[in-house]
Specification:
Length: 166
């Protein structure tokens, strides 16, 4: 591992951070639009957004691989604090700006992750509702709850019963 990284390498890192922030900002915007399309059940918009999101994730992944390559070339292990170590090896006058950019990039990525989780929950809830409706259609009624008897056999229940009767 080198004692210090050149100003040119620091500039390359800065460029990658700025690109990463831009890409993650675009992805965050796409995720916001995806949520609106999910809430409005706009299938055509979802198809377009899904393709856009996929392309943005590919670009973000490429940006990430370039950062990992910089770690490898610098002899820094690919670990949680690897980027922080890389920045600490840059000239002092560039470190402050690089740390700010890196922190901004991490905040943007975290926001994207959280929004993607929310969108995933909306999709899962929709899937659950559709499955429930299909069960009703296929069986002629809502699925019936069942309790298990002392012997372990399933005992279908209609309506509600008190715990004493269950």
């Amino acid at each position: 591992m080198p004692d210090q990284i050149t100003a040119n390498t620091a500039k390359e890192i800065e460029i990658l951070f700025v690109e990463g922030i831009s890409l993650s900002s675009k992805l965050e915007f796409t995720l916001d639009n995806e949520r609106q399309a999910l809430e409005n059940q706009d299938r055509h918009r979802l198809e377009t957004l899904s393709e856009l999101k996929s392309n943005q994730l590919d670009l973000l992944s490429s940006n990430d691989h370039q950062l990992i390559d910089m770690l490898t070339k610098s002899g820094i292990p690919k670990e949680v604090n690897g980027i922080d170590t890389l920045i600490s090896l840059t000239p002092l006058k560039q470190q402050t700006e690089l740390f700010k950019l890196w922190d901004n990039h991490k905040v943007k990525l975290k926001a994207c992750k959280e929004k993607n989780i929310i969108n995933g929950r909306i999709i899962e809830r929709s899937r659950s509702v559709v499955d429930h409706l299909l069960n009703i259609i296929n069986s002629g009624g809502p699925p019936q709850a069942s309790l298990y008897e002392a012997s372990g056999k399933s005992n279908p229940q209609e309506g509600s019963r008190t715990i004493a009767k269950a």
